[in-house]
Write a structure and sequence with these properties.
Blueprint: H1 7-16, H2 24-45, E1 54-56, H3 57-70, H4 88-99, H5 104-126, H6 132-143, H7 146-152, H8 160-177, H9 181-196, H10 202-210, H11 212-218, H12 223-241, H13 245-250, H14 252-262, H15 278-291, H16 328-341, H17 345-364, H18 379-395, H19 400-429, H20 432-437, E2 441-443, H21 447-459, H22 467-474
Helix pairs in contact: 2-5, 2-6, 3-4, 3-21, 4-5, 5-6, 5-8, 6-18, 6-19, 7-19, 8-9, 9-10, 9-12, 10-17, 11-12, 15-17, 16-18, 17-18, 18-19
Membrane topology: Multi-pass membrane protein
Transmembrane segments: 27-46, 82-100, 107-126, 132-151, 158-176, 226-245, 325-344, 349-366, 372-390, 402-423
Keywords: Cell membrane, Glycosyltransferase, Membrane, Transferase, Transmembrane, Transmembrane helix
């Protein structure tokens, strides 16, 4: 699992290498990466505290919990928040809210920063497999995709899963390559962060474990070390999650209620869109969720709602309704990358595992999918295959001049698509349909009043008002 370096790159590196310093080529790639990250951060910070133009219920409930934390009346770092999910993420977000003087900007800022921080981490990961140019182009498409942008500008912790996933996979590489136990411990530590994060973060540890037999197969001469390392990884992740267990044990039914509500398996007896029985439902879910990368029509029709639990269809607030998850350019490259990866399965096996485990866990096994929020952990894997396709396309051109032309054309196309996607995001996020999909929500014209009331309730050790309760008292004006 090493990065592919062309002969020309090798010559350039040898010619310009300075002991103790990065090469000229690496320096140029680093500058380009910094530029991409800077633009990505700027797009995320632009009007972050006022756009989108309302505070949707998930954001409002998160901020309400944060106010209780700041008032010392809320859950501890190992308690449970309103979802219920580990409150650790809310404690992290509370730092930003505190310094932003309780403003909406502070709530959304962690998502913007962590989504940008994921870019250099993911670059280091991609760089082990593909050329730096292909890696940067793939990350550019990822960074400015409507999907990633939407959650990068949201007061929700689910975007953290992208950063944690990339970091865990990068550390796993180190653990498999180095004969040092610290890398296994660090990988386990990162996996535990997934357990403390958004629900989809639980799939990170599952992905790492699922890769175990493949890791053993690829490192046959180090079976004992690999098995021991994985044992250390799992023990570390579980040990670091132990502080959370008392709050779970105090009310296990409450902790598991969301997982039970969204489980598609619970619909086997009553039926799910005309399908009955686990086998039939799973087959339906597999084909439905596989199509969504390329075909937005699978989002059409009504949402499923369990008889005992009427649910609002929240999917239109997560991605443009009726459109595929990926833009046409990314979708084409994603499909091509997956096909090409079959010819180098030894190097791409980890990415297939990192894609299929969260896809099956968060999409196939849950109701009302495709769901862009639950599937957030697939992003690093999806854009790896995009990068792999770009890498192979560029590598086709053996002549230096032809390759340079291919790189220029690819860069132009990626830049154009990224600009188009950014415009599409802002147009979509300002549309009446999007704002309506975010309901129930607090209009930003009421935010200051809403914030004062919630902070006062937190000081008085009263639970935050839900958005529905707020609307019943104050209406929409």
């Amino acid at each position: 699992m090493t990065a592919r370096v062309t002969n020309q790159d090798s010559k350039t590196n040898r010619a310009t290498a300075i002991p103790g310093a990065i090469t000229r080529a690496e320096y140029i790639y680093l500058i380009i990466l910094v530029i991409v990250c800077s633009i990505a951060l700027g797009v995320r910070l632009y009007r972050l505290g006022s756009f989108p133009a309302n505070l949707m219920a998930d954001e409002a409930d998160n901020l309400g919990v944060i106010y209780t934390i700041l008032a010392h009346s809320g859950p501890g770092p190992f308690g449970l928040d309103w979802k219920p999910s580990p409150a650790f993420s809310m404690w992290v977000a509370s730092i930003f809210v505190y310094f932003a003087k309780n403003d909406l900007l502070g709530l959304r800022l962690p998502s913007a920063l962590f989504s940008m921080l994921a870019l250099p981490i993911t670059y280091l990961l991609y760089r082990r497999y593909i050329h730096p140019v292909a890696a940067i182009l793939a990350l550019t498409l990822m960074s400015f995709s409507v999907w990633y942008l939407n959650f990068s500008r949201s007061g929700w912790e689910n975007i953290n899963v992208v950063l944690i996933t990339s970091l865990a996979l990068l550390l796993l590489h180190k653990a498999l390559e180095k004969k040092q136990w610290k890398w296994w411990i660090l990988t386990g530590f990162t996996a535990s962060l997934g357990l403390y994060s958004y629900f989809s973060g639980r799939a990170i540890l599952l992905s790492l474990i699922a890769y175990t037999p493949i890791a053993i197969l690829l490192h046959r001469k180090q079976v004992t070390r690999i098995v021991a390392g994985y044992g250390l990884l799992i023990i570390t992740a579980i040990a670091l999650f132990i502080p959370q267990l008392p709050s779970i044990a105090a009310d296990p039914a409450r902790f598991n209620i969301r997982a039970e509500r969204v489980s598609v398996l619970n619909a086997a007896d009553d039926g799910y869109f005309g399908h009955y029985g686990i086998g039939s439902i799973l087959l339906y879910q597999i084909q439905r969720n596989a199509r969504f990368f390329f075909d937005g029509s699978v989002m059409g029709g009504p949402a499923y709602s369990p008889p005992e639990q009427p649910l609002k269809d929240t999917r239109p607030r997560y991605s443009p309704f009726g459109k595929p998850l990926l833009d046409p350019a990314a979708a084409l490259l994603f499909a091509l990358g997956m096909i090409l990866s079959l010819f180098c399965l030894r190097n791409s096996a980890l990415w297939w595992v990192a894609l299929l485990v969260p896809w099956f866990f968060t999409q196939v096994l849950s109701i009302n999918t495709p769901d862009a929020a639950r599937g957030i952990g697939m992003i690093p894997s999806i854009y790896f295959f995009v990068g792999l396709a770009l890498d192979k396309i560029i590598a086709v051109f053996k002549n230096k001049k032809a390759r340079s032309v291919a790189i220029v054309i690819s860069t132009f196309i990626v830049a154009s698509v990224s600009i188009w996607n950014t415009i599409e995001y802002f147009n979509w996020a300002s549309s009446p349909e999007f704002l309506e999909a975010r309901e129930p929500a607090v209009p930003l014209s009421q935010f200051e009043q809403w914030s004062k009331v919630q902070q006062q309730r937190a000081q008085e050790h009263l639970p935050p008002l839900t958005v529905t309760e707020w609307k019943e008292i104050h209406g929409d004006n």
